[in-house]
Each structure stands twice: as C-alpha cells, then as structure tokens.
Write a structure and sequence with these properties.
Blueprint: H1 3-25, H2 36-39, H3 55-58, E1 70-86, E2 109-121, E3 125-132, E4 137-140, E5 153-168, E6 173-192, E7 202-224, E8 227-234, E9 237-248, H4 252-258, E10 262-271, E11 274-282, E12 287-296, E13 303-308, E14 315-319, E15 325-335, E16 340-349, E17 367-379, E18 382-404, E19 407-429
Antiparallel strand pairs: 1-2, 1-19, 2-3, 3-5, 4-5, 5-6, 6-7, 7-8, 7-9, 8-11, 9-10, 10-13, 11-12, 12-15, 13-14, 15-16, 16-17, 17-18, 18-19
Helix pairs in contact: 1-4
Amino acid sequence: MNKSLQAAVAASTLVSTLCLTTTVCASGFAIIENSASGMGQAFAGAAAVAEDPSTIYFNPAGMMYLEGTQVTAGMHIIDSDADFKNKGSTNLALAGVPQGGEGGNAGDTFFVPNFYYVQDFGEKYKIGIGVNAPFGLGTEYNDGWMGRYTSTKSEVKSVNINPAISFRANEKLAIGLGMNVQYIEATLKKDIYQAALGSPDGHAKMDGDSWGVGVNFGFIYELQPQTRLGVHYRSEISQTLKGKVKYKSVHPILQQGFGKINKRVEAQIDLPSTFAVSMTHQLNNKLTLLADVTFTNWSSFDELRIEGGDAFDPVDLVEEKWNDIYRYSLGMKYAYNHQWTFRTGVALDETPIDDKYRTSRIPGDDRTWLSFGASYSPNNQLTIDVGYSHLWVEDAKIDEEYALLTGSGTLRGEFDADVDILSAQATWKF
C-alpha cells in the first residue's frame, strides 16, 4: 500500500470519528429532563411556572416566587429504543465479508440526576445553585452489524453547574441571571475494514473531554395576578474536546498510515443557545393552563474543524449544516386539594438533522410527547413529584456513505424509535 493511500485511510478514520462526537453532543439527544414537576406537564410553562428550585435551569427569575430555603433532588430514568431496518444497504467493496445483522436495539437505559438549592440573600435577593446534565445519552449496536464501519457505540455524559441570583425590579417584574460551568466527555467506537489486507476488522475508539462556560438569564412579568409571562435565554457554550483516538487489532500497514496507535486529537464544537417564552394562566382556584415555545439555535453548528494534537497534523473541515428548531408544548395542572396536584401535557420536539446528514450515531427524528404527573405534599415542608412521558419518534431515514480501503459502502434504511421517561423528585422547604 502506498503512503498516500495510508494517509487517506488514517484521515478518513480520524475525521469520521471526531465528526460523530459532535453529532452525539449536539442533536435531539440534548436533555431537557431537568425537573420531575416539569416532566408531568411536558415542560409547558417551564420559564414562567416557578414551582420549585428547578426553576434555576428554566428561568432563574422564578427563584423570587419561592419562600425561604428550598432544596430539590431528582432522578430521571430514560429508556430509549432504536431498531434499524435495512432497506438496500450496500457493501459491494467488501467481497467475502458478511454484511452483518441490523444491530439489534441500539437504545439503552440512562439515569439522569439533578439537584437544586435556593435561599434568601439579604431582604431583596435570592441565590441558588443547580447541578444537572443538559447533554447525554447514546447508542450501541450488536457486534458485527452491517453499519459497524460507521459506528458501534456512542456515549456522551455531561455535568452543568449553574449558580444564579434573582431580584425584583418592581412588584410585577422579577429578573434572574446565572453562570454555567459545563463539563462534557465522549466515548465513540467503530470498526475498521481490513479484509482487503487479509485481516479481520480492527477497532477505533475515541475518548475526549472538555470544560466550557456560559450564562443564562430571564425575567417573569405578571400581566395580571393570574397570568405570568416568562422569558429565558441560555447562551451558546463553546467546547474544545481533547483526547485520543486509540486503535486495536490494526494491520501493520494501516498502523503506518495512522501514524500512532494512540493519536492525540481536538475538536471544537459550539453547543447552541436557547430562547424560551412561556405563559401560565390560573383559570380558577383549581386549574392552571401552561404553554411554552423554545427556540434552539442549531444553525450555529455549521461546520466542524478538526485537528490533531501533533504539530504537523493537517486541519480537517467537515460541513454539518444543522437547522434551527422549535419545541412547542401545552399543559395544565389541577390542584385537587392542598395535598395533591395532577398534571398533563403534550409537546412537539423538532429535530435539527436533515435526512441527508443523519448518521447511525443519532437515529432520531421529530418527537411527539404525551406526559402525566402528580405532586403530593404530606406537610408544608415536603413535596414529592413524579412524572412520566412517552415520546413517539418519527421513522428516521438514513442513507449514510462511508469510505473503505477498496471503495465505499452505504448504510441505507430507517430507524423505528421511541422513548419512555420516568421522573421523581423531592423538594424540602426550611
């Protein structure tokens, strides 16, 4: 094998591995599940409702509506299913290599915790801190599946630390602002085609992590005693993932092309800003109506620039061209008595990914939510919230081409996916 072909193979593997890092982090797998009370009403009214300390994430101005010191701790169980159905995938370049199966259920079950604390700060201010996970989840396929040269496993974890402060500008207007210190780590795996060299598949694994900083701020305005308008902005956060691509069971000829078995890499990604407008209206002493529209600026993710950590590695540029999206939600809550409140909601959650840019790492599409929940307060100091949502995901078409040593292949088909989420939290008032 000549050196130019070796270099092309190395660059292809590096670029595709890092490109998919961003796909995992910046897609429909962003996590909104940061409040169990919000879960029960599909997060309708999230920037205006201000029921518990989780308002730090959705609009820190809402802290002004909480009495005294309050603590919320929650857990969300997210169970996702994603089954690939082959519709004409080709691997004509892979003579003598089994095409492989459809990968099984690529989804998984994830546990997402969050924690919030709010207290008075002097006579006119509230301060608080939230800890949650705004990005995450992943996919994993059976060994030897037909898309193994595009991906075998993707996993992303994040932690967001969000201190905040709020105050009242006047009796109708509350204002809040916060800072976000965010950590992200990613692990991605794929197989390497080596049959043309007389060897079984090799394996590539990328690990990387990064810290980034952003802000969030908003206000809540009382249009009338029964009606609130909430507006909230969460800024873009730039992350530079640094880590290594590690190769295993790679043919010696390919090792020359890769340069190193453990290769240092970096990828610059911009996690998008969001802008939310919410309203709540208390129709009577029992029933409150809720609504929300959230805009996410995914178009800021237009390209991915990749470079190695070594001084003489070239810079690679990958076009992404994601779309701005909206999330629409409507909900209601019913105060049955002073102990019990019941909730429900629906939402439409758009995907930022066009069919032609979809990969097997993220097999999602537009999602429709149906949510139910309840709050129980056995006394004035404790409230327990539970929420459940089912998400119907539109069938996601995929037509993903990938380069190989002796040609190319195409993963062609669609994913049948859905998601179930169960949330619970407890709020203590002191």
